[in-house]
Amino acid sequence: MKRVFLVILVLFMVGCTHNSKLRLFQSDKKVANKSTYQVKTSTYNRAIIDYRILKNDRLSIVIYQHPDLIPQYLQQRGVLVDSSGSVSLPLVGRVHLAGLTQTQATKKLEKSYARYLKKPALNVEVLNKRVYVLGEVNKPGPITLDKEQMNILEAISFAGGLSDDALRDDVIVISNNSYGQMQLRHLDLTNFSKLVASNMILKPNDIVYIQPSSAKEFDIATKGTPMPFDILNRITAPFVSIKTITQ
């Protein structure tokens, strides 16, 4: 009977507890309407296009007329933006690039090199742009962005797809806004009418978290504990045996 009571207690706790020990990024605040997390399309798209270079980024810097100015090993690894936000380059020395978009950085470097080269043409690209997919996917981890934007379905696809235990109607995306503040938004991938294109777009350094389903939480919570049918079988087995013997 104690085991029956234990299973009932576990079921009650799993079903009624608001916060779970398995799920990340939980909040005590109730979300009345998940649409409150939606970001306006124009604002969010602009944030993606205007990715700003950060300290410790690695940049591909190509000087078209003089490709040999940047050593080959730096082209492969990328030029490091140091802790002060600057890069060190041949001829022009240290140039501060942190906080600039790729287009702004290109124009600034072209202006710097114009003092030494005739009409220099450059290309600047951030090499380490990534999004991170965590939780109930088959291959969690970082995903390299080889273009300016990626939507959440592409990211999940690169992560090997959702696992069988994934919670599909409450996917969490964490982003940083232009002020360095974290923004949290929830997506219901099971309801097409609720999907908003702007909310599905990911920008560099976004985190996508696929939560575990309640079934997985229950399975982990009851691991090692006999299931109800097994317990009932153990309890009734002696009585069945006695009845068989008496007959």
Structural overview:
- The chain is 32% helix and 21% strand.
- The protein is elongated.
- The chain is an alpha+beta fold and 247 residues long.
- Strand 6 (130-135) and strand 7 (141-144) form a beta hairpin.
- It contains eight helices and twelve strands.
- The strands form four sheets. A five-stranded mixed beta sheet has the order 7-6-12-9-10, covered by helices on one side.
- It folds into two domains: 26-49 and 129-220, Outer membrane lipoprotein wza fold like (Roll); 58-126, 2-Layer Sandwich (wza like fold), CATH 3.30.1950.10.
- Residues 4-12 and 30-48 have low confidence and may be disordered.
- It has helices at 2-16, 41-49, 72-77, 102-113, 152-158, 197-200, 214-221, 228-246; strands at 58-63, 79-80, 86-89, 93-96, 122-126, 130-135, 141-144, 150-151, 171-176, 182-187, 201-202, 207-210.
Mean pLDDT reading? 78
Number of domains: 2
Give the class-level CATH name of the largest domain.
Answer: Alpha Beta
Major sheet details: 5 strands, mixed
| Strand tally | 12
Q: Span from first to last CA? A: 27 Å
CATH architecture of the largest domain, by name, is Roll
Q: Give me the CATH fold name of the largest domain.
A: Outer membrane lipoprotein wza fold like
Q: In what order do the strands lie side by side in the largest sheet?
A: 7-6-12-9-10
Shape: elongated
Secondary-structure element string: HHEHEEEHEEEEHEEHEEHH
Structural class: alpha+beta
Poorly predicted tracts of residues: 4-12, 30-48
- Proportion of beta-strand residues: 15-25%
Number of helical runs? 8
Report Rg: 27 Å
The helix fraction, in percent, is 25-40%
| Fourth-tier CATH superfamily name of the largest domain | Outer membrane lipoprotein wza domain like
